[in-house]
Write a structure and sequence with these properties.
With 348 residues, the chain is of the alpha+beta class. Helices cover 27% and strands 20% of the residues. The chain contains nine helices and 14 strands. Helix 3 crosses helix 6 and helix 4 crosses helix 6. The radius of gyration is 20 Å and the shape is globular. The structure holds N-oxalylglycine and nickel (II) ion. The site of N-oxalylglycine has 11 residues, from strand 5, strand 11 and strand 12. The site of nickel (II) ion (NI) has 3 residues, from loops.
């Protein structure tokens, strides 16, 4: 009988490389250009925005102004008073850590397929020149509910699924508050970003595990990128830093506020705001002392909705800077794979 063609297998996870204890990371993880992980960049005090003050009449003008200013300079802010208790955030962190601590054979039950990002694994290898990220992930679609692929949702730790479900519901509320406030901060109708986002919007959760890395000077946890979302809500590790944002060609490290959610705008909010809000370029550096775990949730418009700069922001004196786009995430991945900035596809 003829042998069936050998299926390409999912590559080794970063955790497996670490377990092997090699001192020099494999060649395809090493950045050869100058753009590798510099750890001692200046710290930036990302603006802190109190979500409760955003919606309360006596305080909201001032807080909205803080939000507008944060998003048009850094493209991100630390959200506090977001309605999720500190202890619940710790639970989310705890089940995430418990999952990554499971034996490899158990995690492998949730492995992504070779040609899809959903599930457990690391970077898809798309070209020989690609430099890989020093991170393993669990990538799950959490909304809309009917698109959940439960075969990738861990059953261990036991509380994992319920906690993720609960967290999703809480983030839906936060997303609505933030999108409304973003509109209001620009003196627009409350619902104008929300309309472009849609009622059946997609939310994807990416649990990121960054193992200790023997050569943080040569390897990045995540290479520089901007997100393809409208907004991204990041739960940072409670103790270990690693995230850096770029502004005016300089890198800045982000401090940890353990009870805060770090919210950044993605390319689609830059498009909708006609460039007023900046989708920031960011990266993750590794370190040799401690592992780091984060959870990024990407909020993405309903796939049938076309996005474009909202009406109120385009007029004779301020021309529209971006085209109408549909399914931006698909375009995003095509560009990203070619090492180009996806937002350039949308620019007029
Ligand atoms: C991402 C990301 C940052 C982090 O997943 O897109 O930028 O600190 N993550 O894990
Ligand atoms: Ni990102």
């Amino acid at each position: 009988m003829a042998e069936s063609p050998r299926k390409e297998s999912v590559p080794k996870t970063v955790q497996e490389l670490v377990i092997n204890g090699e001192q020099l990371p494999p060649e395809n993880y090493i950045h050869k250009d100058s753009d590798r992980g510099v750890l001692d960049v200046p710290l930036v005090e990302i603006p802190v925005v109190d979500l409760a003050l955003l919606t309360s009449l006596p305080t909201r003008r001032e807080e909205l102004e803080k939000l507008r200013s944060a998003l048009s300079t850094w493209g991100c802010f630390q959200a506090i008073n977001h309605g999720i208790t500190h202890s619940f955030l710790d639970k989310v962190r705890e089940v995430t850590k418990q999952f990554f601590d499971l034996p490899m054979a158990v995690k492998r039950k949730y492995s992504r397929e070779v040609d899809s990002i959903e599930g457990y694994g690391n970077d898809m290898i798309l070209s020989k020149q690609q430099t890989l990220d020093w991170t393993d992930r669990l990538y799950l679609t959490v909304n809309p509910q009917h698109q959940r692929r439960l075969k990738f949702w861990p059953e261990s730790p036991e509380a994992f699924r319920d906690i993720l479900d609960d967290y999703t519901i809480k983030l839906e509320i936060i997303t609505e508050v933030v999108l409304k406030a973003m509109a209001r901060s620009l003196n627009l109708e409350d619902g104008c970003f929300l309309e472009h986002y849609g009622k059946r919007a997609t939310m994807t959760a990416r649990f990121n595990y960054y193992p200790k890395c023997p050569r943080p000077d040569l390897v990045l946890g995540v290479k520089p990128h901007a997100d393809g979302s409208v907004i991204t809500i990041l739960l940072q590790d409670k103790e270990v830093e690693g995230l850096q944002f770029q502004k005016d060609n300089q890198w800045f490290r982000v401090p940890i506020i353990s009870e805060a959610l770090l919210i950044n705008v993605g390319d689609q909010a830059e498009i909708m705001s006609n460039g007023i809000f900046k989708s920031p370029v960011h990266r993750v550096v590794t370190n040799s002392e401690r592992e780091r775990i984060t959870l990024a949730v990407f909020c993405i418009p309903e796939s049938e909705i076309e996005i474009e700069p909202v009406d109120g922001l385009v007029n004779e004196s301020t021309p529209r800077l971006y085209k109408k786009m549909k399914n931006y995430v698909d375009i995003y991945f095509q560009y990203y794979q070619q090492g180009k900035r996806p937002i350039d596809a949308a620019k007029i």
